[in-house]
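Fill in residues.
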């Protein structure tokens, strides 16, 4: 069997790339009729007009996309700068508060400044939990001037 198979209804093999007996009629050198020439000119103008509109839309879309990208990066950089400034300010406040815990008040008051007594956070400690009892103990020791260790060393 020949490569490519056979033509249906024929015993002749089909060979890809071989010249076909079904080719477009050759153009003669006779001039085109006026109707066809006018139609081609109108079609070419319409195609040209659509291409112009398409290129304008494409340019507009690219411009809008570039503006959106620029806005995104402006917003991103502004947020990043604000977060950096906030983190730096919080770090400075933390260091100032940490250094402040070594002076003033009883030992339990200074300890309570270092510990989060809000009950919030990763595992805040619900009522009845060990963390809640620890918070209550620290709060009671902080208020009691005669609690063990309140006066320091």
């Amino acid at each position: 069997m020949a490569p490519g198979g056979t033509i249906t209804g024929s015993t002749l093999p089909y060979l890809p790339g071989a010249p076909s007996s079904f080719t477009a009629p050759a153009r003669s050198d006779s001039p085109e009729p006026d109707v066809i020439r006018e139609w081609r000119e109108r079609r070419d103008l319409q195609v040209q007009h659509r291409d112009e509109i398409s290129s304008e839309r494409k340019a507009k879309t690219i411009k809008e996309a570039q503006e959106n990208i620029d806005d995104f990066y402006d917003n991103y950089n502004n947020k990043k700068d604000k977060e950096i400034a906030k983190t730096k300010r919080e770090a400075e406040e933390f260091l100032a508060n940490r250094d402040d815990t070594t002076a003033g008040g009883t030992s339990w008051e200074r300890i309570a400044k270092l510990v989060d007594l809000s009950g919030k956070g990763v595992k805040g400690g619900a009522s009845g939990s060990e963390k809640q009892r620890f918070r209550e103990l620290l709060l009671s020791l902080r208020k009691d001037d005669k609690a063990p260790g309140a006066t320091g060393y």
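The mean pLDDT is 79.
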